[in-house]
């Protein structure tokens, strides 16, 4: 009888430890999910900006100072476009937390 009671107590203790350990690992996973959601939102905005629309097409300035484009509409230099595409490529390739954070920084800049 006494050994059965000890076994029940031990089982309950193990169950409580397992539940506690599960909840202790959830916040880092949630934090990564939040970063991934933020990165996905930035990628979506970047792709939409790059695609433009019928009224406001993205213009690429070959002169570098914007003198060859209509500055009332969205525009960037050719060098900025290269950096922009590199940031998008890095964002699509990001898998670790550090890469996600770096991709968010690149897209934000």
Written description of the protein model:
The protein has about 110 residues and is mainly α. Helix content is about 70%, strand content about 5%. It is built from four helices and two strands, in the order ααββαα. A two-stranded parallel ribbon has the order 1-2. Helix 2 runs parallel beside helix 4 and helix 3 runs antiparallel to helix 4. It is rod-shaped and about 90 Å long. The N and C termini lie far apart (about 70 Å). About 5% of the residues have low confidence.
Provide key terms for this protein.
109 residues, mainly alpha, two-stranded parallel ribbon, rod-shaped
Helices and strands, in order, run as HHEEHH
Number of strands: 2
Give the amount of beta strand, in percent: 5-15%
Q: Specify the overall morphology.
A: rod-shaped
What is the count of DSSP helices, taking H or I runs of 4+ residues?
4
Helix and strand content put the structural class at mainly alpha
Largest sheet: 2 strands, parallel
Termini separation (Å)?
69 Å
Strand order of the largest sheet: 1-2
> If you average the pLDDT, what whole number results?
77
How much helix, percentage-wise, in residues? over 70%
Catalogue the unreliable spans: 26-33
Radius of gyration, in angstroms, nearest whole number? 25 Å
Task: Specify the oligomeric state.
Answer: single chain
């Amino acid at each position: 009888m006494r050994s059965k009671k000890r076994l029940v107590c031990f089982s309950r203790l193990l169950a409580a430890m397992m539940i506690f350990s599960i909840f202790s690992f959830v916040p880092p996973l949630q934090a990564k999910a939040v970063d991934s959601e933020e990165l996905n939102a930035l990628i979506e905005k970047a792709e939409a900006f790059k695609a433009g629309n019928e009224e406001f097409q993205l213009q690429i300035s070959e002169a570098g100072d914007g003198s060859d484009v209509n500055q009332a509409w969205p525009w960037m230099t050719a060098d900025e476009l290269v950096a922009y595409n590199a940031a998008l490529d890095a964002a699509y390739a990001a898998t670790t937390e550090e890469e996600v954070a770096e991709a968010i920084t690149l897209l934000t800049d």
